[in-house]
Amino acid sequence: MHEANTAAQADTTTQANTTAQVNTEQWAQEIADKIIAKMRVVAERNQHTVPYTTGEDGRFDDHSAPGAINWWTNGFWGGLMWQLHHATGDDLYRTIAEELEGKLDAVLMNYDGLDHDNGFKWLPTAVADWRETGNQASRNRALLAAANMAGRFNTAGNFIRAWNSWDGEPNTGRAIIDCMMNLPLLYWASTELDDPRFKQIAVAHANTAQQRFVRADGSVRHIIDFDPATGEYLGSQGGQGYGHGSSWTRGQAWAIYGFALSYIHTQDPQYLDTAKRVANYFIANTPANGLIPVDFRQPENVTWEDSTAAAIAACGMLEIAKQCEGETEADARIYRDAALRLLKALADNRVLWDEGHDNLLTHCTAAYHDKDHEFAIIYGDYYFVEAIWKLTGRELFIW
Ligand code: GLY
Fold first, then answer.
1. Atom 2, ligand 1: residue with shortest CA distance
2. Domain with 94 in it: what CATH number?
3. Which of 164, 287, 319, 398 could form a disulfide with 260 if both were Cys (CB 3.0 to 4.6 A apart)?
4. What is the distance between the alpha carbons of residues 150 and 172, in angstroms, rounded to a whole number?
5. Residues that constitute the known binding site
6. Predicted TM-score (pTM) of this structure
7. Structural domain contains residue 8
8. Helix (H) or strand (E) holding 132
9. What is the pLDDT of residues 170-222, one digit of tens each?
10. Which domain holds residue 140?
11. Annotation says 178 is catalytic
């Protein structure tokens, strides 16, 4: 009798899981259809732009001009076009992505325009192009970008220098958590050239990041300063978050996805453990409405959100879930459900589905102490689409 009850219970659980999976697939499919319908119109009218945000008229701005073209986010419109091309086969997207990739050559030929964000610029453009079409010129661009990035490695402190000099600050000994997302350019180059040097640098940086950025509670620092000559650890800064000791949500999201990616490229289980630890912290701090603040430790009376953090964290959690499938099914379900909760909160409350606005996501924030908050940001749209593509099996894996 007891055994029969247990078996019946197991059947009911399996049935409930299957129903939930079918509902999720249906939901994701509907969202994907809405994205494709809107983005065809948006792409058509933004064929020659390099967007970052929108103006008051809801239309994208353009970062194509000299100087502006160096901005770290300029690869994401190209990445969005490659994801849409991969999903639909529509050549409009390919043409737009190729034009943008060509514009980034001005950055590749400008030493001061290059920094650790070479990953954000050339993974969604040149590497995506290479993976999608086999274009040799794209491969060459991405390898040059990887070689430049590898040249930023500091052997005394085992970290990749983040930014160049800025506002009089030399930044020579500065590393930031965001760099975890740029490491895949180095992993890719090692595979492509069958040369372990790039991967060795990525692993050395990832190990330093694990040790210095991730706190015992699973929260993550944004900026770490080292003495660039000796490698001595000097301290941390709040960076784009609320302040010293705080928990900038996009930084947490970069860590979740970035450590998951280092696991995918190395199979070293410590990176997956770290990704899970930061994800657990993120899940535990997610508000009841599923909408993510700019900093988990911002003052209670501040309501600023950052939808980009939600979209990036969802991508990272879905990758963690994929790595757990078949091994630890209960873990896979936890991270998949957490990602879904973030994505549904965005889709229901923070996406503009009309074709009059160029952007998808609203309420994106670049930095806590900036003058402006809660606007459209192109990488928010990119990661939202990537997450939906992961759920519908359409993704072009670019990292
Ligand atoms: N990588 C800079 C940022 O996340 O704003």
1. 178
2. 1.50.10.10
3. 319
4. 15
5. 117, 178, 250, 254
6. 0.95
7. no
8. helix 128-133
9. 899 999 999 999 999 999 999 999 999 999 999 999 999 999 999 999 999 99
10. 16-392
11. yes
The single-letter DSSP state of residue 51 is -
Question: What's the domain count of the chain?
Answer: 1
Distance in angstroms (rounded) separating the CA atoms of residues 122 and 63: 16
pLDDT tens-digit profile of 56-74?
Answer: 999 999 999 999 999 999 9
Category of 168 on φ-ψ map: left (φ > 0), alpha (ψ -120 to 50) or beta: left
Q: How far is CA 342 from CA 61, 297, 368, in A?
A: 27, 19, 21
Angle between helices 378-392 and 2-45 (to 10 degrees): 140
Is 11 a catalytic site residue? no
Known binding-site residue numbers for substrate: 117, 178, 250, 254
- φ, ψ dihedrals at 60, nearest 5°: -60, 150
Place of tokens 């991508």: 315
For 194, the token pair is: 């069958």
Is residue 166 one of the residues assigned to a domain?
A: yes
Under a CB-based contact definition with an 8 Å cutoff, are residues 381 and 389 in contact?
A: no
Q: If you measure from the C-alpha of residue 178 to the centroid of ligand 1, how many angstroms do you get, rounded to a whole number?
A: 6
Residue 295, beta-bridge partner list:
248
Look up residue 385 and give its two tokens.
Answer: 């689409």
11 within some domain: no
